């Protein structure tokens, strides 16, 4: 509906040959143009309704990636330009003239820094904004390492219950183990 209104307003505006804003502009055309301008606010409103209707609240992945790659891009651009300026100054001091080697060296440095810097920025964003998820991941990694070394079933039971309490924070936790059929015959 909004798109149709916008289309009608634009077509009628293009076909009208009179001066813009003049006293002779038809009232209906002015109202249609104002309605077209107001229709631009319908896009964010429609997005808001879609988020509410389809329960798109869990967009934390999009937010996380926006934070990570936005700050990573800003950092890399700043490092690139600082690297070019510094290397140009060094080449001017050494040779007395500017060199395109500064651009090449800065580009290679940025390419080499991308993955480690991305890993650090992602770790920082996870620690800073997604602390609970970060702590849960670290706890599960520690439990996984302990699981490889532990052989005592009672100790594993206690460790598993404590990890679930720490990461999921449920109201009640219990672990039921099925008895071993080989053990039943021995009793």
Reading the helices and strands in chain order gives: HHHHHHHH
Portion of residues in helices?
A: over 70%
What would you report as the Rg, rounded to the nearest angstrom? Answer: 31 Å
Number of helices: 8
Shape: flat
- Largest sheet data: none
The secondary-structure class comes to mainly alpha
**Low-pLDDT residue intervals, each spanning 5 or more residues:** none
- First and last CA, distance: 76 Å
Summarize the structure.
The chain has 187 residues and is mainly alpha-helical.
Polypeptide structure, described:
The structure is a single chain. The protein is an all-alpha fold. It has three domains: about 1-15 and about 25-55, no CATH class; about 60-130, no CATH class; about 135-175. Helix content is about 80%, strand content about 0%. The chain has helices spanning about 1-15, 25-40, 40-55, 60-95, 100-130, 130-150, 155-170, 180-185. The longest helix has about 35 residues, at about 60-95. The mean pLDDT is about 80.
List descriptors:
flat, 3 domains, 187 residues, mainly alpha
Task: Write the topology of this structure.
Layout: H1 2-15, H2 27-39, H3 42-53, H4 60-95, H5 101-129, H6 131-149, H7 153-168, H8 181-186
Helix pairs in contact: 1-2, 4-5, 5-6, 6-7
